[in-house]
Amino acid sequence: MHERAAPSRYRHARPTGGRGGERAGLGVQKELIERVAPTGDRIADSEKFARVDPQWVDRVRAAFEEYVEHLKQLKAPDPPKGSEVLDVAYRFKGTGSLGRVRFTLLVGQRGERRLIEMKEARQSAMDQALGKPPERERARVQTAAIRRLQGDPWPRVAATRLGGIPALARENEPEEEKIGRELLAKDGGQLLSYARQCGQVLARLHARVNAPVLLGAAWDPAETAHAAVEFAERYAAQVEADQKKFVAAKDQVSRALATS
Questions:
Q1: 8 Å CB contact between 41 and 87
Q2: What is the pTM of this model?
Q3: Rounded distance between C-alpha atoms, residue 76 and residue 68, angstroms
Q4: DSSP 3-state of 130
Q5: Which of 72, 113, 223, 232 gives 20 to 30 Å between its CA and that of 161?
Q6: What is the pLDDT tens value at each position of the chain, 260 positions in all?
Q7: Which of 140, 165, 139 is nearest to 60 (CA)?
C-alpha cells in the first residue's frame, strides 16, 4: 500500500437528535477515524479486525464501486464519490452476524476519510422457517425496508455484491457507538429510562406494519413483558459466551478468509 499523508479533513457527524443521539467524545467523524485507522491509511490491528486475503480485497473494491453507483440511483446525500479503497479488514462485531462475511473499508480521497461497512445479506430467518425460497435481491429488499421502517434511516445505505454474495453496505457514523454498560450501571434510573426509550422506538417501528395484527389479537401486555424479560435474561449468558468464543477464534477466521 502506498504511503499517504494522514487525513486533514473529516466529515462531521449528523446533528444531535438523530439515531442514537449524542455520544460522549464522539461528536465528529474525526474521532471515529482516529480510533479505527490512526495512521489515516490503514485499519489498525485489534481484536475487532482481522486481515484478509488479497482476493477479498479485489472483491471489496468492485463491491464499493457498485455501492457508490447504487447510492447515486437512490439520490443519497453526500456519497463517497471519487474515493478509493485504502484498506480492508474483516470485522468482528456482535453475535448476530456470526458466520457472515463482514468487512470494514477505509476509503478516501485527498485528506478525507470514511469508514464503510459491507455485510453479507442472508435470507430472512422468518422466510426460511416458513419454507419460502430465498429472495434473489435480498440486499435491495433490506435497503428498501430500512428506508421505510427506520424513523431516522441511514442516509448512505445501499445494496451491492461481494463477488456472488449479496451484501448491504453503509457508512459507519460515530453516533452509532454503543452506550457502555458501565455508564448505565452507575444509575439504575438511567437504565430504566434508556430501556423505555428503546421500547418506544421499537414499538413505533412494529406498529407501522403489525398494528392491525396486534390490535386484533387477544394478548396480555404484562404477561408479554414478563416473557420478554425472562427470555432476555436466559439468552444474555449465551450471547456473551458466543462472542468470547468468536473473538478467541480470530486467527482461525483469518486463515479461513485466506482460503475462501
A1: yes
A2: 0.66
A3: 10
A4: coil
A5: 113
A6: 333 333 333 333 444 344 444 344 334 677 888 889 998 889 998 878 888 888 899 999 999 999 999 999 989 888 998 899 999 999 877 666 667 889 999 999 888 899 999 999 888 777 778 888 877 788 888 888 888 777 677 789 999 999 889 999 999 876 555 666 676 777 778 888 888 888 888 777 766 666 666 666 777 888 888 888 899 888 888 888 887 887 777 777 777 766 54
A7: 165
